[in-house]
Write a structure and sequence with these properties.
242 residues; alpha/beta; 9 helices
Length: 242
């Protein structure tokens, strides 16, 4: 099984990653040769304005329902991989669920969401849908998915494995990958790239904040985006105050 290298990422580094936007991270990773990191079609359906999700991936996989196997799985509450995944979430992890893009059964509701939050998880990402969206939004935990459905898991799906490589929105995801999510979507960052991304991404987003300020002041694009020599000098002075 493919695994991530054992890389220790400090809490301070992961906290700093929250200052990098998803568009900046996606573009930066493309420049570093990683062209498939943004999850297509996975939406920030339960994310507050200015809320950013960062965490390490704990993976869970569903497959289409097969009645005889599902019946055996549901004989005991403890024997269901999706419950095992939730009960094994560690602080700072994001539950990442590959439901194969299924739109016909919600794999997470507000009860599961509350439990992930209670165990210290920092978010949930699903290549599939949720139920109880209104209640999930009240929980406050960031949740990214493809939509919602009124029925639960056992309508069409069964969970089969945890802690193995999966795919989310066409992106390969390994346990331990670093996940960054905001209102622009979700991007999966190889652990080896986090430090470089923080180092360059934070500065990039601060510089774009300066550009937005200049555009609001009426500067034309050809002067402000990117800044011309005069504005670059002004930026260097402005940056010292930030």
């Amino acid at each position: 099984m493919q695994k991530n290298p054992e890389i220790d990422l400090s809490n301070d580094l992961l906290e700093a990653l929250k200052r990098v936007s998803v568009p900046t991270a996606t573009q930066h990773l493309m420049g570093r040769g990683f062209h498939n990191t943004y999850a297509i079609g996975v939406q920030p359906l339960a994310v507050q304005p200015n809320q950013t999700m960062v965490g390490r991936a704990r993976t869970l996989r569903f497959i289409p329902l097969r009645e005889d196997l599902a019946k055996a799985q549901y004989d005991t509450v403890e024997g269901r991989p999706h419950r095992q995944a939730i009960e094994s979430i560690r602080p700072g992890e994001v539950l990442v669920i590959d439901a194969g893009g299924c739109l016909g059964a919600g794999v997470v509701g507000d009860i599961f969401t509350r439990r992930v939050q209670g165990r210290g998880g920092t978010g949930i990402v699903i290549d599939g849908v949720v139920r109880d969206l209104m209640e999930i939004r009240e929980v406050g935990l960031p949740v990214f998915c493809r939509g919602m459905h009124g029925a639960g898991i056992n309508r069409l799906l069964m969970s089969v494995s945890i802690d193995e490589p999966i795919q989310i929105g066409g992106v390969p995801v390994l346990p331990g990958d670093v996940i960054l999510g905001d209102l622009d979507g979700v991007v999966f960052v190889p652990p080896t790239e986090v430090e470089h991304l923080v180092e360059h991404g934070v500065e990039h987003d601060i510089r774009e904040g300066f550009t937005r300020m200049k555009i609001a002041e009426g500067y034309p694009l050809h002067r402000a985006y990117p800044p011309d020599e005069e504005l670059r000098l002004e930026y260097e002075q402005w940056r010292k105050t930030q």
